[in-house]
Structure formats: structure tokens, C-alpha cells
């Protein structure tokens, strides 16, 4: 029992570690918070999907990445098939050397590949006298060549693994029966390589779509989806990126279910047990288990869920959340003011006001430059009958007796 509990706990922790970030991103895509978070939960909304679609830089980068990915698949898969066929046809001594040459681009850092692609093709452009508006300085062209240089090795590895199981006597028998090499290749080898070709195309497309290290140099002034996404993360993220994760997860799950249904159907048809299976007992069950029908059903269910979620109006909830935040902010400000008033010391008595309110003593008062007023002259003494300045001391009449 202890071993079973340990195994269950280990498996639970493993799956939480594996799928925990995905679950968190899915939840944050439907939270109205401006920052991706699970708690505190605010309002359920699907507006972030609209924000994602209205981002012109991301959408233009998405279309550029899709175009580059399709072009990379169209070039890298044939190159990889040619490399796998060359490895199968040459001797064991040369095979090791050729394998090392074909596998080397994977071992080179993407930064080195991106810089070397720019340097090489700009050198070629200058050598032929090409101007800056030609393909030698075009970001789409340089990105395509830079990605094919190493993604073709991925395709070669996938196709070479499948080719190891091929019996070469089948093509030899076809040639002996009069088939041309082209007919033997189209009718015998290609049908055998068909599953590997599909896997190689899928892997090369994903490797091109998600590549950043090489693309950030070769795209020049343009943008792919990964470079635009990286610049958005540097400038500040929002839940629209979580909405993008939800879309990718939904597309991946639908593709996996359809692929599994197709694989099981092909196994039943090859084994001849399709007639014995209950799923093929009547035409309706055969139709419902067809991969195309499953794809239509899953897309329809997903579309209905998305339409139902988009009908939810979060404006009333946002208004209530905003009002609650304002109330909390006012309460905190009031508490802060009360705390400041309680901690403030007693204010000293203010000095008596003066006629000069300036703290600089009126030094900058324009009236202070006027000359000081002169004091008033003393009042003149009353006139007397004696004009002498000696007070009449030498006046002969001063000696007469007063009457």
C-alpha cells in the first residue's frame, strides 16, 4: 500500500509539474485582470481574445510565419529525402562522413546561423552589384534560407529512420519487371515513405514556426510571430498571451484526437477486423467514427463553447470591481490621514504678524530703494522785540526797572 501511495503521489506531482503551467494560462485567459493572474479572481471575460486579434503586429507576424513555414516545408522535406536516400545508397565508409556533414547544421547555434546567413548573402549581393531592394537583402528570403539550412537535417533524420525499414529488393524487383526508376520511386518507395513524409512535414513546419534564434537576425526589419511575441513580452505582458495559449492548446487537442481516430481506423482496415468491430456495425457509427466527422464535430463544439462564452457581459462586474477598489483606496487614504494627524507634534506659536510679510526682511521690496524721509525741522521760537542774538544783554533799556 505504501508503494502504491508513493507511485500515485509521484505521478500526481509529475502531471502537475507538466500540465500546471498550461492550466494556469488557461485560467488567466478568462480573468478580466489586466495582469495574468489566477487570484484574486475578478470577472469572467473573453475580451482578451479580441485584444489578441486586434494586435496588428502579432497578426502580421502570424501570417509571415505561416508563409515562411509552408515554404520551409516545401524545400526542407525534399532536401531531407534526398539526404536520406543518399545515406541509404552509398557505402558504409562514405556514409559516416556524409551523415556528419548532414547533421552538422543542427549542432551549430542558431545565432551563428542567422549572422552567417546575413553576412554570406550580403557578400553575394555586393558581388553581383545588387541593390538593397533585391532578394539578397529581403528578410523573408534570408529567413527562409537560414531556416532551411538546419531544418532540412530534421527532415533527413525522420525520413532516414523510416528508410532503414525499407526492403530494397522491392524496387529491384520492380526494375527487373520493366519499371523505370521514376516509376519504382513513385509507386513503391513513396507510398512506403508516406507516413514519414507527413511526420517530417509537420516537424519542419513547427521548427520553422517557433524558431527565434536564427529568425531574429535574418528577418531584418520585418517581424515573424515569435519575434513579435518576444518584443511584446519584453515591453509588458497581458492575458492576451494566455488567450493565444488557449488557442494553441485547443488546436493541438483537436489535431491529436483526429490523428488518433485516423490511426485506429487505418489499423482496423489493414487488419481486416473492421467488419467485426461494433463501430462499423452500421453506417451511422461508421460515419461518426470517421476522422473527418470527428474533426467537424470537435470544431463545432469548440465554436459553440466560444460563442456562448463571448455572450457573457463583464461590464457590470468590472464596474462593481472598480467601485470596490475605489472604496478600498479611499478607506486607506483616510486611515493614512488619521495616522499622520495622530503622529504629528504640537505646532509652535506663530509669531505676530508684521507689516512686512516677506521672510527676507523686505530686501526685495521695490520701495526699499527710495531715500529715507528727512525729519521735520524744529518749530521756530516765537518772535521777540529784541533782534539781538545775545538776548538783549547789551540793550541799555534792559537795566531799567520793571514796572
Give a concise summary.
By secondary structure, the chain is mainly α. It contains 14 helices and no strands. It has a domain at 57-238: Orthogonal Bundle (MetI-like fold), CATH 1.10.3720.10.
How are the SSEs ordered, and which strands pair?
Elements: H1 2-28, H2 47-53, H3 56-89, H4 92-107, H5 110-127, H6 139-163, H7 169-176, H8 181-209, H9 215-218, H10 225-235, H11 240-271, H12 283-288, H13 291-310, H14 315-343
Helix pairs in contact: 1-11, 2-11, 3-4, 3-6, 3-8, 3-10, 4-6, 5-6, 6-8, 7-8, 11-13
CATH class of the domain at 57-238: Mainly Alpha
The CATH architecture classification of the domain at 57-238 is Orthogonal Bundle
- Average pLDDT works out at 83
Q: Class by helix and strand content?
A: mainly alpha
Detail the poorly predicted runs. none
Helical fraction equals: 55-70%
Q: In one word, what is the shape? A: extended
What oligomeric state best describes the polypeptide chains here?
single chain
Distance between the termini: 153 Å
CATH domain topology of the domain at 57-238: MetI-like fold
SSE topology string = HHHHHHHHHHHHHH
Radius of gyration: 46 Å
The proportion of residues in beta strands is under 5%
Count the helices. How many? 14
Write down how many β-strands occur, each being a DSSP E stretch of 2 or more residues. 0
Largest sheet: none
CATH level 4 superfamily of the domain at 57-238: MetI-like
Amino acid at each position: 500500500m505504501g508503494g502504491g501511495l508513493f507511485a500515485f503521489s509521484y505521478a500526481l506531482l509529475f502531471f502537475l509539474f507538466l500540465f500546471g503551467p498550461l492550466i494556469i494560462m488557461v485560467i488567466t485567459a478568462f480573468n478580466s485582470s489586466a495582469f495574468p493572474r489566477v487570484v484574486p479572481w475578478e470577472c469572467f471575460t473573453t475580451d482578451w481574445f479580441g485584444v489578441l486579434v486586434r494586435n496588428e503586429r502579432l497578426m502580421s507576424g502570424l501570417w509571415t510565419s505561416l508563409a515562411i513555414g509552408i515554404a520551409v516545408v516545401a524545400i526542407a522535406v525534399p532536401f531531407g529525402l534526398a539526404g536520406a536516400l543518399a545515406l541509404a545508397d552509398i557505402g558504409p565508409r562514405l556514409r559516416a562522413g556524409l551523415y556528419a556533414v548532414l547533421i552538422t547544421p543542427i549542432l551549430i547555434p542558431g545565432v551563428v546561423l542567422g549572422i552567417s546567413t546575413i553576412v554570406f548573402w550580403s557578400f553575394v549581393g555586393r558581388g553581383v552589384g545588387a541593390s538593397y531592394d533585391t532578394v539578397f537583402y529581403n528578410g523573408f528570403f534570408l529567413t527562409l534560407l537560414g531556416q532551411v539550412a538546419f531544418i532540412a537535417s530534421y527532415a533527413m533524420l525522420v525520413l532516414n529512420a523510416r528508410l532503414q525499414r525499407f526492403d530494397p529488393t522491392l524496387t529491384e524487383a520492380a526494375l527487373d519487371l520493366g519499371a523505370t526508376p521514376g516509376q519504382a520511386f513513385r509507386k513503391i518507395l513513396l507510398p512506403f515513405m508516406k507516413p514519414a513524409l507527413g511526420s517530417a512535414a509537420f516537424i519542419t513546419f513547427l521548427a520553422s514556426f517557433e524558431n527565434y534564434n536564427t529568425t531574429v537576425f535574418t528577418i531584418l526589419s520585418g517581424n515573424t510571430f515569435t519575434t513579435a511575441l518576444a518584443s511584446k513580452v519584453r515591453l509588458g505582458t497581458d492575458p492576451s498571451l494566455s488567450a493565444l495559449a488557449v488557442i494553441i492548446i485547443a488546436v493541438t487537442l483537436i489535431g491529436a484526437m483526429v490523428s488518433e481516430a485516423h490511426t485506429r481506423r487505418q489499423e482496423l482496415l489493414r487488419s481486416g477486423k473492421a467488419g467485426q468491430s461494433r463501430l462499423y456495425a452500421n453506417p451511422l457509427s461508421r460515419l461518426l467514427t470517421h476522422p473527418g466527422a470527428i474533426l467537424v464535430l470537435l470544431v463545432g463544439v469548440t465554436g459553440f463553447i466560444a460563442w456562448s462564452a463571448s455572450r457573457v457581459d463583464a461590464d457590470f462586474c468590472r464596474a462593481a470591481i472598480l467601485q470596490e477598489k475605489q472604496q478600498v483606496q479611499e478607506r486607506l487614504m483616510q486611515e493614512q490621514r488619521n495616522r499622520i494627524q495622530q503622529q504629528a507634534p504640537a505646532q509652535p506659536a506663530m509669531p505676530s504678524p508684521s507689516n512686512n510679510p516677506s521672510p527676507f526682511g523686505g530686501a526685495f521690496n521695490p520701495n526699499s530703494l527710495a531715500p529715507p524721509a528727512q525729519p521735520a525741522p524744529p518749530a521756530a521760537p516765537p518772535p521777540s522785540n529784541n533782534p539781538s542774538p545775545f538776548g538783549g544783554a547789551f540793550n541799555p533799556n534792559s537795566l531799567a526797572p520793571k514796572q
